[in-house]
Write the structure tokens for this entry.
Amino acid sequence: MKVIAINGSPRKRWNTAQLCQAALEGAAQAGAETELIHLETMKFKGCMSCYACHSKKKYNTTVCYYQDELTETLQKCIAADAIIIGSPIYYGFATGDVRAFMERLMFPIDTYEVDDEGCRPIKLDKVIPTAMIYTMNAGEEHMRNNALGMNEGELRRMFGYSESYFAYDTCQFNDYDLYAANLFNKEHKYARREKQFPIDLDQCRQLGARLVEKAKEAQAGVLKREKLRMPEEFLKTLKR
Ligand SMILES: Cc1cc2nc3c(=O)[nH]c(=O)nc-3n(C[C@H](O)[C@H](O)[C@H](O)COP(=O)(O)O)c2cc1C
């Protein structure tokens, strides 16, 4: 049982990395072998739109055909039993690195086909439970962002299971006095790091352990990928 966490923050020791690490601790306690991968260490691009993975000749490939420093990580993810993706929020979305990684991870297993039941087949046979961990300055009341919900929806469609954890109002600097950032109340931020962040870490440990349970259910055939029927109206607009 292998659980991989992808840290999409350029900072290797800060909020996102620590929460990814905590999720892996939870997974390890539940019996998994774990690996933390920092996207920052690799030079890579997002989907190049080469469409090799959608060509009839290479249709069966499930790993992005374009080769660069991300290739090994993509191979590891497809071979893994569970995947955790951590991202800070940058201007309302996951970071560019995380978006690029997800394009490369998902497009080769996705299809532009429609089956007899009106569903899009996924090339990956197995279910790989996934989770997103987001960290951000904003409080919960400001982060009602549909785009983040879409990440979870697409991961669920592709890999069969997905959940998200949101770590709000994180502490961004060790010393706020060194930065031009009077938008923030530094005492509040230090207090958040002291009081809320340990709770976030614990929640992520539980998330990691939960994913291992989901992976076991997937291996036992209990957790199955739900086939999502595309709405008739949507299908009509595509096929017109
Ligand atoms: C370029 C940039 C853009 C950011 N944009 C947002 C944002 O739109 N909303 C928000 O809540 N936080 C934003 N933040 C703050 C980070 O999401 C937050 O500090 C996060 O916890 C940092 O993760 P890290 O500690 O793992 O690097 C931004 C930070 C940076 C560097």
In short: Strands lie at 2-7, 33-38, 82-90, 93-94, 130-135, 162-167.
